[in-house]
Amino acid sequence: MTDTSALLALVASTRATLERIAADYSPAVFASSLAAEDMVLTDLILKANLPIGIFSLETGRLHPETLAVLDQVKAAYGYDVKLYKPQPEAVDAYVAQHGLNAFYESVDMRRECCRIRKVEPLGRALAGNRAWVTGQRRSQSSTRAQLDIQEDDAAHGMAKFNPLADWSEADVWNYIRDNGVPYNALHDQGFPSIGCAPCTRAVEPGEDVRAGRWWWENPDSKECGLHMVDGKLIRIKSVAA
Q: Taking every annotated instance into account, which residue ranges of this chain make up the domain Phosphoadenosine phosphosulphate reductase (predicted)?
């Protein structure tokens, strides 16, 4: 049974965090993967008309269903999510030297592919901003268990916010259903966490929500690098809200 009052309190707290970001950390941007969590934040930001830009990393290997979410956002909110793509020459060099799907061969090869397709474009997307917002939650995986709502991201020289850190999977879906928020069709096909098509599979009942991401790797390596520096998570300093 849904605890409506608890969810309303979470929503109010998250709205307050987003309003504080808009007021005190402008210019700020929201890095959306177009997954369920990110659609909750998209809904909260756009319905409140907050001056927080929304962008997504178009890696060139996304599912068609993920790309379709861009049209859903446009139709529902009249908003165009800004896309950042990898440098074509870097992609071509990787493929020429290692092969299109070399990321299956080792963690290093996978992280290099993620660096080219996600990390480098992220740097361009964050440039010139004072803060960035993510849809990360503590309950998503063991690598995110210590997640804080506000962090000092020294690697990018800005504040980093995870407004949904306290939210559960159920909270996310209750909000989506209660508010008619559009979402990726793959979520209805057993994909709780969605990345690039070759690196994401559906999960089995009872599996961790991120078990389908880089399923051939150990759980403690399952980060693409967006939240890491030199192989370590970028959680250098927590900041009290």
A: 28-202
